[in-house]
Amino acid sequence: MKLFKDLLRFADKFGIPKIREIIEAKMNPKITFMNVVEIANEAIRFNAQNLRQKCFDFILDSVKNQDSLLNIEKLDKDFAFEVFLQAFYRISETVEKQFYD
C-alpha cells in the first residue's frame, strides 16, 4: 500500500496523469472491505478521481448490502457525507417506486 501512496503522491505533485491512471487501474480490483477506506482517503488526497469513484460505488454497495467496512470512522468526512446522501436518495427512490407504481 505504501508504494501505491507514494506513486499517487508523485503523480499528483508533478502533474503526471498517466501514472495516476495506471495506479488507479491497478488498484481498482484490489479494493476490499478491509482497505476501501484507506484507498478512498488516498484517492481523495491525491486527486485520483476514477479511484475515488470506484471506492464511492464500493462503499455505497456495502451500505446497501449492510456489509461492515474496516475503519469506516476514518473515512474522509465530506466523502462520507456524499455516500450518506446518495444512500438515502437510493432508499427513498426505492420506497417511492414501491408505493407509487
Description:
With 101 residues, the protein is mostly helical. The protein has one domain. The protein is built from five helices and no strands. The termini are far apart. 22% of the residues are buried. InterPro entries: SKP1/BTB/POZ_sf (IPR011333).
C-alpha-based Rg, rounded: 15 Å
| Shape call | elongated
Series of H and E elements: HHHHH
Count of helical stretches: 5
Strand content: under 5%
End-to-end separation in angstroms reads: 47 Å
Sheet having the most strands: none
InterPro entries: SKP1/BTB/POZ_sf (IPR011333)
Give a quick precis of the structure.
The protein has 5 helices and no strands. The chain has helices at 2-14, 17-27, 36-45, 49-64, 77-100.
Keywords summarizing the entry:
single chain; 101 residues; mainly alpha; 5 helices; 73% helix
